[in-house]
């Protein structure tokens, strides 16, 4: 299988505080990957390093065979690696329609702006209704939909989602999970962080447990009917559910 | 009485147009970078002198409008250089706002004295775009002033359309509201800072070039308009380019009325008093939203 994203021995952090301690993993072109693990152990830092917001201290990130380590966020967006960050509040004073248009800022996305807009509005009809409403007035669920939609407007070749259903009601969570499943069915490779293990088990073919800034365990989903209880066991060392 | 009202209206319109050109740039830089650019007034001065120099070089046979166009291009570069030299080295520092107050003040002093050194203290004037006056009933206005009154709204409308209906305009606003989100959709943040500084300097420069066709140029001609632009930006609500443009005309008319009623010496203090009152009772500004979520 062709490797889409490869992370090798990545170390990074904030100031003197190192969060990633030589983290490595690979992701193929035709698979969805899930990351899980306790909070504060490097999942968000990993994503911010991949998308260029944080410069790594050492290690290597390659996308589609190209070394993108330490490149600017803009270069990384331009090659199609789109990071939908956690709890992104976007631009509170701009209208939903404007923000969607701005999502097509990358050069490679401009020509497909019209088609992508139709696509995301079909996926999230609620955003089409709110087109002239300011972002700051959206509910948490709507804002999360907009976040995903803005990511899709950029013509991603790989979509990185950081806790897309964080803090949402169960009903909205299901709605968003369904939308994400539909995005995946469309052939978009997804790299997802989620606390909801069931959601990851349905969506992805492989899980990585991130602990203390490294991948502590790799779990092949469905290989030997690996289920929720087994993950919990791996995760917490618990014997039952 | 009627002639007085008409002359106040005309003078208010001219002042308002100039302040709108000044304040829109100041406000745009505030909205995108969150800093107050003290060197903004001197952009007006430099613009006027650069246009003067180009006009001198090209000779008196060529229409002054060409010199103004060339000078505007120079001003975009000057504004971009401001950003590159005075602001860019300090991005990401916790004390950036404080440091840039000092660096832009330094830029102001440097350029003001630079103008004095290069062009000397002698008063200069730029040819008006179209010489002569127009009298129509009670209205008596120089053609240059009429051009100021007509050109400013056109330029500001163009600015409004760029900011609201083009990708680069949306990107400039986005960077002001959330830098991290802007980076994640591939907007080159520092380039947007460069663009907004360049645009702001060109707008201020244009105000200077137009004014230099009506009044005499001095190396400190930008100081008073900067103060007025500060009042305007606070009056209109920080962070709202549209509010600043509206407030510029309000301040222009108020100034014209105050000059007539309390005289030219008391006018600045009255305007500042008004600014204090606005800050006390409507801190979000005249046109600012109740809840300035963008700040």
From TrEMBL, chain A:
<keyword id="KW-0029">Amino-acid transport</keyword>
<keyword id="KW-0813">Transport</keyword>
<comment type="similarity">
    <text>Belongs to the ABC transporter superfamily.</text>
</comment>
<keyword id="KW-0067">ATP-binding</keyword>
<dbReference type="Pfam" id="PF00005">
    <property type="entry name" value="ABC_tran"/>
</dbReference>
<dbReference type="GO" id="GO:0005524">
    <property type="term" value="F:ATP binding"/>
</dbReference>
<dbReference type="InterPro" id="IPR027417">
    <property type="entry name" value="P-loop_NTPase"/>
</dbReference>
<keyword id="KW-0547">Nucleotide-binding</keyword>
<dbReference type="InterPro" id="IPR003593">
    <property type="entry name" value="AAA+_ATPase"/>
</dbReference>
<dbReference type="GO" id="GO:0016887">
    <property type="term" value="F:ATP hydrolysis activity"/>
</dbReference>
<dbReference type="InterPro" id="IPR003439">
    <property type="entry name" value="ABC_transporter-like_ATP-bd"/>
</dbReference>
<dbReference type="InterPro" id="IPR017871">
    <property type="entry name" value="ABC_transporter-like_CS"/>
</dbReference>
<feature type="domain" description="ABC transporter">
    <location>
        <begin position="5"/>
        <end position="237"/>
    </location>
</feature>
<dbReference type="GO" id="GO:0015807">
    <property type="term" value="P:L-amino acid transport"/>
</dbReference>
<protein>
    <submittedName>
        <fullName>ATP-binding cassette domain-containing protein</fullName>
    </submittedName>
</protein>
<dbReference type="InterPro" id="IPR052156">
    <property type="entry name" value="BCAA_Transport_ATP-bd_LivF"/>
</dbReference>
<dbReference type="GO" id="GO:0015658">
    <property type="term" value="F:branched-chain amino acid transmembrane transporter activity"/>
</dbReference>
């Amino acid at each position: 299988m062709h490797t889409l994203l490869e992370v090798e021995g990545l170390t990074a952090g904030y100031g003197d505080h190192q969060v990633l301690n030589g983290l490595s993993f690979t992701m193929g072109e035709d698979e969805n990957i899930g990351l899980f693990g306790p909070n504060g152990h490097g999942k968000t830092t990993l994503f911010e390093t991949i998308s260029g917001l944080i410069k790594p201290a050492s290690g290597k990130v390659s996308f589609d065979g190209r070394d993108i380590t330490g490149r600017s966020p803009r270069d990384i967006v331009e090659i199609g690696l789109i990071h939908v960050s956690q709890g992104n509040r976007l631009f509170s004073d701009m209208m939903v329609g404007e923000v969607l248009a701005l999502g097509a800022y990358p050069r490679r996305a401009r020509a497909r702006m019209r088609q992508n807009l139709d696509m995301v509005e079909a996926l999230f009809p609620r955003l089409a209704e709110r087109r002239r409403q300011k972002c700051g007035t959206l509910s948490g669920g709507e804002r999360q939909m907009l976040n995903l939609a803005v990511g899709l407007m950029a013509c991603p070749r790989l979509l990185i989602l950081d806790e897309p259903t964080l803090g949402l009601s169960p009903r909205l969570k299901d709605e968003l999970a369904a939308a994400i499943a539909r995005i995946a069915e469309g052939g978009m490779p997804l790299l997802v962080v989620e606390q909801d293990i069931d959601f990851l088990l349905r969506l992805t073919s492989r899980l990585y447990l991130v602990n203390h800034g490294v991948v502590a365990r790799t779990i092949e989903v469905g290989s030997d009917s690996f289920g929720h209880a087994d993950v919990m066991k791996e995760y917490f060392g618990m014997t039952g559910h | 009485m009627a002639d007085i009202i008409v002359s106040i209206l005309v003078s208010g319109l001219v002042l308002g147009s100039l302040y709108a050109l000044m304040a829109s740039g100041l406000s745009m830089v505030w909205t995108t970078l969150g800093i107050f650019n003290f060197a903004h007034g001197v952009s007006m001065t430099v613009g006027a002198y650069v246009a003067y120099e180009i006009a001198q070089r090209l000779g008196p046979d060529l229409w002054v409008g060409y010199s103004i166009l060339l000078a505007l291009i120079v001003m975009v570069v000057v504004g971009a250089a401001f950003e590159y030299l005075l602001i860019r080295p300090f991005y990401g520092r916790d004390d950036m706002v404080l440091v840039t107050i000092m660096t832009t003040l330094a830029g102001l002093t440097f350029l003001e004295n630079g103008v004095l050194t290069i062009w000397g203290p002698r008063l200069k004037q730029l040819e008006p775009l179209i010489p002569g006056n127009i009298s129509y009933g009670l209205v008596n206005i120089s053609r240059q002033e009429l051009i100021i009154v007509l050109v400013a709204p056109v330029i500001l409308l163009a600015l409004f359309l760029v900011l609201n209906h083009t990708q680069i305009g949306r990107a400039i606003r986005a960077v002001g509201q959330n830098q991290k989100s802007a980076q994640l959709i591939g907007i080159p943040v520092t380039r947007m800072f460069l663009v907004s500084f360049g645009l702001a300097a060109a707008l201020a420069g244009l105000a200077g070039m137009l004014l230099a066709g009506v009044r005499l140029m001095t190396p400190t001609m930008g100081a008073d308009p900067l103060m007025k632009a500060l009042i305007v930006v606070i009056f209109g609500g920080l962070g709202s380019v549209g509010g600043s443009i509206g407030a510029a005309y309000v301040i222009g008319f108020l100034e014209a009325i105050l000059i007539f009623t309390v005289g030219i010496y008391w006018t600045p203090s009255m305007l500042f008093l008004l600014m204090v009152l606005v800050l006390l009772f409507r801190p979000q500004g005249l046109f600012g939203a109740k809840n300035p979520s963008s700040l």
